[in-house]
Amino acid sequence: MQTPVFEIKVNGKPVASILNERLLSLSITDKEGVGSDTVEVDLNDGNPYAAIPKKGDQLEVSLGYKETGLLPFGTYTIDEPEVRCLPYGMTISGAGTNTRDQFKQSRSRHWDDKTVAEILQQIASENSLTPIISAEVSAHKYPWIGQQDESDMHFVERLARKHGALFSVKDGKLIFAKRGSGQSASGKALTKIILTPAQIVEGTCRVTFSHRKKVRKVKAKARNRAEARTDGVDADSDAEGTADFTLKENFATEAEAKSAAKAKAESLKSETIKTSVTVFGDPTIRAGAPFTYSGVRPEVDGIEFIIESATHRLYKAGYLTEIEAKLKPVETKKAKAKPKKDNAASTVKTNNNSSKTPKIPQPVSQPPAGNILPGQVGIGRA
């Protein structure tokens, strides 16, 4: 039997021993990408009354088990404390301190003959962030690219969509990695999660196959100024799709169009299978981590997912983790252009594997994990 524990620091000072007697629930939501992570602490209040948090107060939160130790979940800025009267209570909400104000301010500028990596390194330096950039999605060189009346955050998000990257800012780091690569804020690979029936709360596992969202190909256009024509490229997405998706933007170069089409094809493919599940509390489960089911159901076991959000909830009764995930983007081969014909669009197939539904391996039985029911645990003191 394991005992859930937590640690909370307010402006660097530990307060878990005080909150332990008042805590009703603690919820932490970890999201993939640049979406802000959140924390919510619900407390009993009164006799004596707790001090109402001030603007800018910082919460540092760690979760885990007494027997295995705590894992940090980051620092949050308190943004919306709420007090309840007669009876008395308090809810403290906070958002991840992931982005500084200047990162969200609009600006206009441009770069000439710069790679994605060089652009990101400059933006990271200007915002006092440490860049962690994957070469796989940052090697493209732009002859010219503009940031026009948009924030650094929105501009980098736009780059991420074009190049099939996942952009996030966590713990003072700007991360720009291949979507589905499963990197943590340190740039290291996140632990792959394999869920068995023993870990799953009964009645919570759902897998949705969205056949209507399947797209056969993604098409893009690039302006060939030297020959005064428009060249077309396409990327396979799902062989079971019946319609094509066309990107509205006209790209400056064929290489840029190929990259954008490939990225969109992978993104659309990943939306075709989604899952949600609640498991017994596991602090190692984080957004961006890869996971699969094992021994749950044929045609579900072995599908590779990427976690979009992980919500950790700690109650007096125990500790649970809620997962939302989608199909892991399929690895693709580098696009190769076919020989062009005069005044004809060039067609490029970027992936020989991603157009097919992933092959489902046979279930592999595993011994049940030694998990415990929510009602069998209590909250321990950190």
TrEMBL record:
Transmembrane segments: none annotated. Residues 333-382 are annotated as: Disordered. Gene3D superfamilies: 2.30.110.50, 4.10.220.110, Baseplate protein-like domains. SUPFAM superfamilies: Phage tail proteins. Coiled coil: none annotated. Residues 346-357 have a biased composition (Polar residues). It holds the Pfam family Phage_GPD. This is Phage late control D family protein. It comes from Pseudochrobactrum kiredjianiae.
